[in-house]
Structure formats: structure tokens, C-alpha cells
Amino acid sequence: MIEETSKENIDKRIQRAAEAFQFLKNTTINERAEFMNAVADQIEALGEELLAVTHAETSLPLARLTGEKARTVGQWRSYAKAVAAGIYTEPRIDLAQPEKQKGDLRKYHVGIGTVVVFGASNFPFAFSTAGGDTASAIGAGCPVIVKAHPAHPKTSQIMADAINTVVTAFGWPEGIFSHITGTSYETGAYLTQHSDIQAVAFTGSLQGGKALFDIANRRENPIPVFAEMGSINPVFAFQNLLETKAEILAKEYMASLTLGVGQFCTNPGLFIALKGNSLDRFINTLKDEILNVAPANMLHKGILESFEKHKNIAIEQPNVEIIASANTTTEDGQGHASIIKTNAQTFLNNPVLSEEVFGPFGIVVVCETIDEIREIAHQLKGQLTITVAATDEDLRDNLTLVSLLKDKCGRLLFNGMPTGVEVVYAMQHGGPFPSTTDSRFTSVGPDAVKRFVRPISFQNWPDEFLPEELKNDNPLQISRMVDGEMNSGSLKLQTT
Amino acid sequence: MIEETSKENIDKRIQRAAEAFQFLKNTTINERAEFMNAVADQIEALGEELLAVTHAETSLPLARLTGEKARTVGQWRSYAKAVAAGIYTEPRIDLAQPEKQKGDLRKYHVGIGTVVVFGASNFPFAFSTAGGDTASAIGAGCPVIVKAHPAHPKTSQIMADAINTVVTAFGWPEGIFSHITGTSYETGAYLTQHSDIQAVAFTGSLQGGKALFDIANRRENPIPVFAEMGSINPVFAFQNLLETKAEILAKEYMASLTLGVGQFCTNPGLFIALKGNSLDRFINTLKDEILNVAPANMLHKGILESFEKHKNIAIEQPNVEIIASANTTTEDGQGHASIIKTNAQTFLNNPVLSEEVFGPFGIVVVCETIDEIREIAHQLKGQLTITVAATDEDLRDNLTLVSLLKDKCGRLLFNGMPTGVEVVYAMQHGGPFPSTTDSRFTSVGPDAVKRFVRPISFQNWPDEFLPEELKNDNPLQISRMVDGEMNSGSLKLQTT
Question: Which Pfam families does this entry report, sorted A to Z (chains A, B) (predicted)?
């Protein structure tokens, strides 16, 4: 039974977070990076007990959890490194020009204020309580209030304890991090509409993310909501590639579609190609491959039920045919990975088939002409990823179509499969609506910090009272733009 | 009489803009910079006729318009330089690590799509048809549809013609720039809710900006709205400064408050200080200074009427006293610059007194204690600017209060006055709601380009098909982050 944190308690925590923000605003990037590295150490030191608890709560295999834990530790460390490098403070200095009556202007980025984080069920470490949203918000200089995901409450508590241990060890205000528990919709809504909350980060369903987005925009002072809400991650397969590699592509596709029982937000749920012998070979290989998928539990019973329900809605649509199916879950023996096929006109005219089914489910759309493929690309909603399965020649033959696909996603792959999201600077995990609420930001990679900062300019401010990032002698030795040119030195001022 | 562009015509222009976006997406930063410099040349070449037309439409003095025209030309050129430097494409490359099974990832920023610009009446050049929003959107790679401000239709048409001349000269698709005219609310709403529009930039009233923001967020695919909606730009005067400089400060304040008949968004409409002899000296100087203000017309009759109406609403509030007033407009002899005073408790408890009165109107809030000043700071809504009139010692004595003020504005001044917005990198023209809808961005300075880009990642994409910004040999010779380090060279790849 999960305890519902009371409104009084939530209010108290929001108040403490506001106080902690005043403290955090005056920390340097180095101090925040040290804090983040200490959190990484703390999580890294959590032993077998954590893995056992999380395995029991999520059914995720221990090997996967071991990897995800390492990734989570790596997130804290790599974001800390980026924060310490001063990348997200982005200092800009335009020196005074007294002869032109122009004053001294210095701008940098500060934390936006208290951030509420709603974790995801499918990544109990990397996208949850101590996940990327929490790490990037603290890196930006923002206190964090986590609403724990009710599917893994014990895991969430262990992670919250790890962060709080570091808060205590550093002697920082306790309001820097708060852990709220509960299952009610009202708790999330209450947090989002509170006037002292300045941003929200969410990973989950379209319904949940859009509800928070709407609440945030109806506030007297609207705030940004960064919701990652899922995607069907289309694969567009072109003719030359399909001819030479139909079987290999089918194996790759099946492996990606069923990886982690299909519970990845970059799961490739849609495959689009021209009809013909090559596509038949691809489909025939899928039929064989699905039988090799090892059954495993889904995250929890609710997800299994939702998967079966939404999958069956898709299967029951007219002009749809099951081409591959096998029992791939162990819980109750009810979960069947399935792939259906349909034709382009059916897909284009039935919006049900464009909705995400969270789990191992895919649709192969068989197109009569390249114009139908173009029409699907044109009609496509925003996606986290799009994969172009093609040869160089295919790309050359389809430049206009590929250019159009750029408008529909955050990450464009040339072959390979979209599952597997590297935590690096060049990652973009975020795409046009409805895959996320704001395609201008990523929730993976150090650039995730950008979501939680805003610029402030100081005009003619005395050096003594400027933040370290903007002082004349550049004590943090970071790269700054001075009069339009990048510069890592201290300022050579003509006046004394 | 202003012609209302028909819905059919608007639809056609949106369609053309979508086509132009596919073209713009494949232009290089150098090509867009050349285009922007050509627009600057074209506007610069517009002679006395432009100034005469705009003077007739806006009543703004020729000297001011000459300066604003130069500023507008300067905006196009400085944004072009920043675009050509590749700052806003922000390339990030993480090379493949085959031994770790990590692919090659390359991210950069592309234009977000078609942008609708609503210009302001108070800056017919710099914040209107060919103003900073249009320049920064085109710099980002976005087609622009301008909804002309009905207060200066001829000026708007001359500017639109200037841009279109360059579009034709470059042989670029005409959809890159469109000029829509009309006075109806429906036209603006129609543009904002059209599914092919990807962002909106607006400068004007809170009512107008918030209406567009709400429309944009209610769309099936919500889009960002960058609305700059005004501000009362408080001046917090501290004791030591006030004691030594009450008279000088009063002169500066009066000059800033009545500059351009008070029609600047950074007009300092609020002055907060402790009661006492120094503040009395400040107020007495205001009484004298207001008599020296040279009368001038406001922008148009509607603005004069609105000024008088809202000023009188403020004056009629309880516990309010006029301390300085003089006729400062020539039109109908009705416009009186006015300054009122009230006490802190009245100001704190009457929200009417915190509303912007667009024009030469100010409120002096006389505080009994520093706690009352702190309470005002705490209750303050978001502002474009806050000015701290202080000595170093005052700052030292009020660190907590000054830290709080940082949360309430985009630009913090140490003495001086906030009117005068430099077009430089370190400028932040944008603050917490309701001064703007998005405090994370500026509408002045080259960084304004950031509003209209979004990142896209390419995974394992063949070099031939990558954008110039991300190719191995770095043909644009821009600074890029490669494996976490900044680098202006070409990539040294180990494989051939």
C-alpha cells in the first residue's frame, strides 16, 4: 500500500524547495558538479539489495538492471562534467563602450526554479527518481520534487535516500530534493498547478503528459512541461536495401521490437515498404523469428493488460491481418507479441493504427507506390525516431522524402534500429508533438540540463556582486563569449 | 482603410511557406547570412520617403526614426554574423565506438518551421514587419508570415517590399516571406491555430499575447508562442544611494519615464524606497522636472485614450496621491504625464496598482520598513527589467533581497535606467510571466534566433547526405563539439 503524501506535507516541501533554490542559485557550477558526482558514487555503492528489490518490483532481468544502474551513474557523472565545464551557463559579456554611451552587459543562465519530476515505470533507475530529469535539474541549479512512480515504490525510496544522504553530507538545505508518494491523479495535478513550481518533467503516456501540459498552461503563470509521451518510431525501408537484406532486416527489426518485451519508448512499431517479393521475404522471416523470442514478464500486470487491450483493438480493425504472433510473456500466458500487416490506404484512413501500443507489437504497411509512402510520411505525427533502411542509392533517389522525414522526428537513423539511446551530447531524445510536448529539448544526454535554465542579464553590475561565471577574472576558467568572441581568459579592462 | 487578407489567400501563403521551408532547410548558414545582409542593405537604402511615411503614421520624431532604422539595419547584420558563425546550429558530434557497439551520432539545430510574426506599434521598424523577430526567424531557417500592425500599414508595406525584393533577387521561393494585412482578431487567431504554423512571435499587450498563447496551446499539436507583453520595470532605491543622489536619480527617472512619451516596454513605471527626507527630496525634484518635459504626440489616438483611461483608474484608487503632473502630449491637449505616490500596504493589497499603464505614468511606493520592500519584491510579478539604485554598501546590506529580485526579471540593472535596450549577445529582453510567455528566451540580440530552432540527431548517416554543418571535413569551418570538446577542424577518422 502506497502512502499518499498529504497536501500539508507537499506544501511544506514546496516551501523548503523555494528556500533551497535561493541557496542553489548561489552555488557554483563546480559545487553542483561535486554534489552530482557524490550522488553517482552513492548510487554506484548500492549493492545487490537494490537490484533484488527492483527486480521484484519490475520483473526486469538482473542483467538489464545492472546495465541500467551503470547508465544512471554515468548520467550523473557526465552531466556533472558538462555542468562543471560551464556549457549551460553560457556566459556572454559585452563590455561597456563609454564613448558610445553603452553600458556593461553580462548574461548567463540560472536555474529556472523548483522542478517536479514524474518518473517512468519502464526505466526504474535511468528515467525515474534518480534519473536523468533529476540529475539535469539539479545540474541546472533547481531543487527537485519527485513524484515517485507507484509501480516501483521501494526502488524509488532507496534512490531518494541515496540523494538525501548526499544532501545531508554536503550540509545543503534539505529542500533540494523531496520525495512525494501517492497514486492519485490529484497529487500530480496539485504539484503542477502550485505557483512555486517552475517546470515539470514527465516520462509516460500521452494522456498523462498532455494532462499535465494543459494544467501548466492554464496556471495564472504558465510554466514549461517537458513530457516525453511515446512514439511509434517508424522504419521506412527502401527497395535496394530490402532486396539485398530482407532477412537480416527482419531479424534486426524483430529483435528491436521485442527487446525488453517491447517496453522501450523507441520501440519500432511501424514498418513501411513497397509491396513485392523482397517485402514478402521480410514478412516470412518475421514469422520464423517471432518463434525464437524468449518469453518474459512485462513490468506489471496493468501494462500487460493494457498491451493486450490496445493490441487487440488494432488487430480488430478492418483490412488488417496477423502475420506473426507468439507467446512472449510468462505472466498468465496471455501476452502475445504480434505483428500485423495492412495496406497504405487503410493505414492512412484509420487513425487507430497510428496510436502507440506499448509492448511488442508492430504494423507492416504494404504500399503500392512510392506516392503512398510519401503520403504516409506527410501524414505522420511527431516521433522520437525515424529509421531509414536504405542504401546510399536509395537515399539519392528519395531526397525529398527523406527531407520531409526530418520534420517528423528528433533522431533520424540510417539503418540500425532505434532502441538503444546513447547518453551523449549528440543524442536527441525528444521530437515533435505528440512524441514530446517540446521538440526543442532533449531528455537524454547532458543537453537535458538546458530545459531547466533561463538567462539573466546584469547591467553595470559591480564585479564584487556578479556571479563567479561573469566576474572579470573568470575564476571558474570557463569559456565565455566576450564582445562576440569565445574566450577562456580573464578580462583585460582598460579602466582600473 | 486596411484590406483584410482573405482566408483563401492566407491558406495559399501558408502552403507556400511550407514549400519554402523545405528549401530553407537545405540552405547553409552562409547563404542565409548573405540573404540577411542583403535585406539590411535594402532597408538602409530606403530614403527620406520611408521616414516621412512612418512619421505621419506614428508621430515618432524623425531623429528617433532615423536611429530606429539604423538599429533595424544593425539587427539584420549582427544576427547575420551570428548565424554565419554557426552559433545557433550548435553542432555536436559523438563519433562511433565500434568496440563498444556505439554508433556515430551527430546533432545540430534546424529551423522549427513557419513562424507568424505580430509586430508592435511602438517600434515600427525594429519590432515590426522587418524587425528582430523576422530577422531571427529567417536566420534560424524559418519562413515568416507577418501580420502587419494596423497602426502603420504603409510603413509595413514598404518593409515587406524591401524583403520581397531580396527574395526575388536571390531567386528564392516567394513563400519565404508573406505580408498579411487586416484588423480583425480572427485573422491572428486563424494564423495561430493553423496546423502548418510552428511558432508565433508577438510584441504587444498582455491581453493580446495571452490570447495567442492560449490558442497555440489548445491546438491538436501545441506550438511555442514568444509574446513580449510589457512590464512595469520597478526601480528599488536603497538608502545610501538615495541620500547622496536623490536629485540626480529623480532627473534620470523622469527622463526615462517620459522618453518617447513613455511608450517603451522597459519604461520604469514603479519606484520603491523607504520614507524619509531623501525620498522627499526625490519627490520634490520630480515635481519640478515634470514641468520640463517637452510635449509630443503619442503613437495614435487609441493609445492616448487607453493611457488616459488606465492612468485615471490608477489615480482613482484609494490612498493614492498625485505628486507630479504636466501636459506632455500635444494631441487634443489631453495627455498628462503623471506620477502618483502610495504606501506599501496599499500597493501590496490593490492589484490594480501593479498593472502596466502604457505611457508616461509612474507610481512611487513609500515604504515604512525594509520588510515592506522585501514583501513587495516577493509579491512582484515577472518583469523585463528591475533596477537596483544603490551603492556597493547598499548591495552588501541587502544581498538576500537582491537575490530574490533576480527571480523576477530578465535584466537587472545597477543604477542607470532600463530604457535603452542594446542589441548585443549579452542582452536579455524577456522575463518571467507575465512580462513574456517564455522567460527562457530573448527577443533582442542575436540570441533571439534560438527561439526558432530545434535539434535533430543523425545516427550513422552517410557523410554525403549530412548537412554541411555535420560533415566530416567541416566545410563551413565552424566550431563544433566533437566527443565533448570544442573543435573547428575537420574530423580525423580512423577508418577510411
Answer: Aldedh
Question: Which pLDDT does position A331 carry in this prediction?
Answer: 62
Which residues in B lie closer than 8 A to residue A114 (C-beta atoms)? Answer: none
Q: Do domains A7-229+440-453 and A234-414 have the same CATH topology?
A: no
Pairing of strands B105-111, A361-367: unpaired
Task: Kindly list the catalytic residues of A.
Answer: 228, 265
- CA–CA dist A150, A119 (Å, integer): 9
pLDDT tens for A55-109 read 999 999 999 999 999 999 999 999 999 999 999 999 999 999 999 889 999 999 9
Least CB–CB distance from A462: residue in B110, B113, B395: B395
Q: Is the pLDDT of residue A433 over 50?
A: yes
pLDDT-derived band at B78 (thresholds 50, 70, 90) equals: very high
> Residue A39 CA to chain centroid, in angstroms?
20
Q: How far apart are CA A351 and CA A98, in angstroms?
A: 63
Confirm whether the ipTM is greater than 0.95. yes
Most confident of the ranges A292-301, B148-157, B287-296: B148-157
- Which pLDDT tens digit goes with each residue over B216-274? 999 999 999 999 998 999 999 999 999 999 999 999 999 999 999 899 999 999 999 99
pLDDT of res. B496: 45
Of A272, A454, A266, nearest to A347 by C-alpha is A272
Domain parsing of chain A, residue ranges = 7-229+440-453, 234-414
Residue B132 is which amino acid? G
B224 inside 8 A of chain A by CB: yes
Cβ-contact B142, B27 below 8 angstroms: no
Contacts of residue A478 in chain B, CB cutoff 8 Å?
A: none
Select the residue of A404, A410, A465 nearest B395 (Cβ to Cβ). Answer: A465
The answer to whether residue A324 scores a pLDDT higher than 60 is yes
Has residue A332 got a pLDDT over 80? no
Exposure on the CB side of residue A440, measured as CA atoms within 13 A:
22
Place of cell 558514487: A41
d(CA A59, CA A82): 34
* Residues A168-191, mean pLDDT to the nearest whole number: 95
- pLDDT at residue B332 tops 70: no
Q: Which residue in chain B has the smallest CA separation from A385?
A: B457
Residue-level length of chain A: 496
In chain B, residues with a C-beta closer than 8 Å to the C-beta of A439 are 112, 454
C-alpha cell at B134: 523576422
A299 contact partners, CB below 8 Å, separation of at least 6: A58, A59, A60, A121, A122, A151, A263
Q: Mean of the per-residue pLDDT values for chain B?
A: 95
Q: According to the model, what pLDDT value does residue B468 have?
A: 96
Instruction: For chain A, positions 451-470, list CB contacts with chain B under 8 A.
Output: 453-462, 464-465
CA separation for the pair B100, A70 (Å, rounded): 15
List b or e across B421-442, with b for residues whose CB sees 16 or more CB atoms inside 10 angstroms. Answer: bbbbbbbbbbbbbbbbbbbbbb
Q: Which one is the CATH code of B7-229+440-453: 3.90.470.10, 3.40.1010.20, 3.40.605.10, 3.30.565.10?
A: 3.40.605.10
For testing contact with chain A, the best of B100, B425, B444, B451 (most A CBs within 10 A)? B425
Do the Cβ atoms of B272 and B388 come closer than 8 Å? no
Closest to A430 in 3D by CA, of B114, B455, B216: B455
Write out the E strands in B187-274: 197-203, 225-228, 234-237, 270-274
- The single residue listed with the C-alpha cell 528489490 is A53
Contact (CB, 8 A) for B224 and B434: no
3-state DSSP assignment of residue B181: coil
Predicted confidence (pLDDT) per residue in A204-214, tens digit: 999 999 999 99
| B433: contact with A, CB 8 A cutoff | yes
Yes or no, beta carbons of A25 and B425 under 8 Å apart = no
